[in-house]
Design brief:
Number of domains: 2
Number of helices: 10
Shape: globular
CATH topology of the largest domain: UDP-N-acetylmuramoyl-L-alanine:D-glutamate ligase
Distance between the termini: 25 Å
CATH architecture of the largest domain: 3-Layer(aba) Sandwich
Helix content: 25-40%
Strand content: 15-25%
Oligomer: single chain
Bound molecules: adenosine-5'-diphosphate, 1,6-di-O-phosphono-beta-D-fructofuranose
CATH superfamily of the largest domain: Ribokinase
Strand order of the largest sheet: 5-4-1-8-9-10-11-12-13-14
């Protein structure tokens, strides 16, 4: 089973308008209320790609009710702990530019923290735990490393798609997959990353620390894949950009879904990039038929042989 962990879910209030000015009244023409949070997006895309998962996390208030119902209506298994904090609303403004306003995550109590850790203890060898999105300070400084320790002890494959100082700790705990974008990778090593060559250098350092698969996503530039035996670079296909929210999450979903179907890491990487780009071209995440079509158009260059 694949479990996605979202400590900071959201309702993504997504508005489209032709022009947006700060300090003025703006009227939007089209609005959507999508469930959000990175792990939630991973579960939604996995479902569309035909792979089941369970969305674990916290939900509260009217937005939490909406979120849970929405996921259940899509046939996604949920194990959301009900919390007193109202699930945040993240505002995504789509105009000439994309502007985002993300709220803080919930205040996590000690009881909730222990529940999240206990749930991981009941997972089985070979399961995936996808830890995605921000980890609020209230979860405690050692939450992520405790969770990673549980995964390591049981043999649960940990996929990490988060940001901030916790990335450094997790990199040393043998996660199966890390998917930083170039900025998160740079932050991890205290450098600015501007080219694929620089990204490759730091991705190799992560593999050297014991991460099995490293994917560095670089927006419209595509992505890099690095493991001990294979290194590859993918060009993203040209697509009309409608909404980039969830592109990184879709990449993670495409990669895991394809690996679970028995694809090689390189083919899974290609499928992941296709899923990321297919998501960008739609308002509400990718559809399988678009991912399948794009996967055939992606150029992947092997930088190192193997597998
Ligand atoms: N403008 C774009 N055009 C085509 N594909 C894109 C674009 N932006 C993102 N993607 C696809 O989505 C993937 C993840 O995007 P990225 O923005 O790097 O992730 P994150 O959301 O984690 O920052 C990219 O590797 C690429 O495949
Ligand atoms: O575009 P990405 O990075 O894949 O993730 C998008 C998701 O992340 C969020 O922006 C939340 O991010 P954080 O948990 O890092 O605050 C959600 O609103 C959105 O659904």
């Amino acid at each position: 089973m694949i479990y996605t962990y979202t400590l900071t879910p959201s309702l993504d209030y997504t508005v489209y308008l032709p022009g947006f000015s700060t300090g003025k009244l703006n009227r939007s023409e089209e609005v959507y209320y999508y469930p959000g949070g990175k792990g939630i997006n991973v579960s939604r895309v996995l479902k569309r790609l035909g792979t089941d998962s369970t969305a674990v996390g916290l939900a509260g208030g009217f937005t939490g009710d909406y979120l849970e119902q929405f996921l259940q209506d899509e046939g996604i298994r949920t194990e959301l702990i009900r919390t007193d904090s109202v699930t945040r609303i993240n505002v995504k403004i789509k105009s000439e530019q994309e502007t985002e306003l993300n709220g803080p995550g919930p205040e996590i109590t000690e009881k909730e923290r222990l529940q999240l850790l206990d749930r991981a203890r009941r997972m089985e060898r070979g399961d995936w735990l996808v830890l995605a999105g921000r980890i609020p300070d209230s979860a405690g400084a050692d939450f992520a490393s405790e969770l990673a320790g549980i995964c390591r002890d049981i043999g649960v494959r940990l996929a990490v798609d988060t940001s901030g100082p916790v990335l450094k700790e997790l990199a040393g705990m043998q996660p199966e997959l890390m998917k930083p974008n170039e900025h998160e990778l740079g932050e991890l090593f205290g450098v600015e990353i501007g080219t694929k060559e620089e990204a490759l250098k730091y991705a190799r350092l992560l593999v050297g620390q014991g991460v099995r698969h490293v994917i560095v996503s670089m927006g419209g530039e595509g992505a890099l894949y690095v493991s001990e035996s294979v290194e590859a670079e993918a060009q993203a296909p040209e697509v009309k950009v409608v909404n980039t929210v969830g592109a990184g999450d879709s990449l993670v979903s495409g990669f895991i879904s394809a690996l679970e179907s028995g694809e090689s890491a390189k083919d899974a990487f290609t499928y992941g990039v296709a899923a990321g780009s297919a998501t960008v071209s739609r308002s509400d995440l990718c559809r399988k038929k678009d991912v399948d079509a794009l996967a055939g158009q992606i150029t992947v260059t092997r930088l190192k042989e193997g597998e």
